[in-house]
Write a structure and sequence with these properties.
Helices cover 33% and strands 20% of the residues. It is of the alpha/beta class. The protein binds S-adenosylmethionine and zinc ion. One of its GO terms (biological process) is tRNA processing.
Length: 427
């Protein structure tokens, strides 16, 4: 069959119509690779929607990651009037269901390589939304590898507004296909669960997956988000696009690193937000290094350049973790839907508010942990609140961190941070 490749920019928003070929993929040789945790079949409820996780991989703890995605998808639908989604690793289909019902998606491809999930996915979606036929078709269930699902959309010019890849480990092999299949101005929701790489314990793994050599640093969980965004920045540039992170979310269950990226046309001539992060084990100072400063690496606490106390990680994303005005819109929507003030754990309102603080462009990568600062300076630490107002009084940018409750993000150097903390304690 002759396929005509439609340029992305000419993509129509008509509903999905290309018949999917029957999967040529053999059954996964090792089913446990696709189902590392089995959950007994039992009806569950998320945001009022009842569904059956069956024997699929399902984590209740990922609900916040799904809430954030649904808020983003809904903002996209409201502003562009179109929402066509590929849920590339859908498990039991809970995300597909939520995109359809809560975000009012026009069309969702619910794909999971494991075809024994089919019955559960189909029943979960049918319970709320009729599948529909032809132009009216709202969803389809497929069982191909995620890459293939994306390539198929690209080949027929059926570009997607949102591609959600809820993968295990640091699987970045789908990035290129995702960029090819997403519409310009569309969204990519990426996941990594590789805490070893972000912690700097597998630098050659992170190098292979994201092109970033990661060393241990005290703020490894933020590095994990920056490494993931950085990998996407590099892949986007290769294809002539650039990306901006709309929000980045770390969750300790797993751990899981998630980023929602917007894909834009044109690669940036010079990306000031893609470079290296240093950390000095001697004095605790952290800094950013651009490509043209690589030969100047050193810490001001040491006489010699490139002192042995200094570790360097990167390249990775150096810019803000979130787009503050976008997260504000997410917060407004969460309020509109009554998803705030729920009073359980880190509720959504608190999370989004901290993300808004974190998106201050003056804040460099990383955070100071108050207990680490205290042990370095051999003193107690003042409360976060007192420290924050003291830093602001001194003219520094400061915010809480959504990653760690006793951490502060600031552009204040460690030596000055300790001095301000000491002054606070003496008050
Ligand atoms: C983390 S689970 C998905 C959970 C689901 N998104 C949710 O929110 O509950 C990952 C799923 O990806 C599927 N999977 C693993 N590798 C895949 C691949 N290369 N292509 C498509 N699906 C894959 C597994 O069968 C598993 O159901
Ligand atoms: Zn130093």
């Amino acid at each position: 069959m002759l396929l005509t490749l439609t340029p992305k920019t000419l993509s129509s928003s008509s509903s999905f119509s290309f018949p999917l070929p029957k999967s040529q993929n053999p059954k996964p040789p090792n089913p446990s690779r696709f189902n590392p945790i089995s959950v007994k079949s039992q009806l569950q409820t998320e945001r009022g929607l009842e569904f059956d996780p069956g024997e699929t991989f399902f984590r209740h703890e990922s609900a916040t990651g799904r809430d954030l995605a649904v808020l983003s998808a809904t903002l996209h639908k409201r502003s562009t009037k179109t929402l066509r989604v590929l849920d590339a690793m859908c498990g039991c289909g809970i995300r597909s269901l939520r995109y359809l019902v809560e975000s009012n998606a026009d069309f969702v491809v619910a794909n999971d390589a494991n075809d024994s999930n089919r019955r559960v996915i189909t029943e979960n979606l049918s319970r709320f939304i009729e599948r529909g036929e032809g132009e009216e078709r709202r969803w389809v269930v497929t069982h191909v590898l995620a890459n293939k699902a994306m390539i198929e959309r690209y080949m027929v010019g059926e570009f997607l507004d949102l591609i959600d890849v809820d993968s295990f480990g640091s699987d970045s092999a789908f990035l290129r296909d995702a960029f090819n299949a997403v519409r310009l101005g569309g969204l990519l929701y990426l996941t990594s669960t590789d805490g070893y790489s972000s912690g700097g314990h597998r630098p050659y793994n992170s190098l292979a997956a994201y092109g970033a050599f990661i060393r241990p640093m005290p703020f490894g969980n933020e590095i994990g988000l920056r490494m993931l965004i950085g990998g996407a920045v590099r892949e986007a540039a290769l294809l002539g696009y650039h990306v901006t992170p709309l929000f980045s979310y770390y969750s300790y269950h797993g751990p899981v690193f998630r980023v929602m990226l917007r894909v834009h046309r044109g690669k940036l001539h010079e990306d000031r937000n893609y470079g290296f992060v240093t950390f000095c084990h001697l004095c605790g100072h952290s800094d950013i290094i651009r490509w043209d400063e690589l030969g100047l690496i050193g810490c001001h606490c040491s006489d010699t350049k490139a002192s042995s106390s200094l570790v360097v990680s990167g390249p990775m994303w150096l810019g803000p973790l979130h787009d503050g005005s976008y997260v504000n819109e997410m917060l407004d929507l969460a309020k509109e839907w009554g998803w705030v003030s729920e009073g359980v754990g880190m509720d959504l309102e608190k999370l989004l508010s901290i993300m808004i603080e974190e998106s201050d462009p003056r804040l460099p990568p990383g955070y100071f942990k108050m207990d680490e600062m205290a042990s370095r300076a051999k003193m107690n630490s003042p409360s976060l609140k007192k420290m924050m107002s003291a830093l602001v009084k001194e003219g520094y940018a400061v915010s809480r961190s959504h990653i760690i409750s006793n951490g502060l993000k600031t552009d204040c150097p460690m030596s000055q941070f300790i001095k301000i903390a000491k002054d606070e304690l003496q008050k």
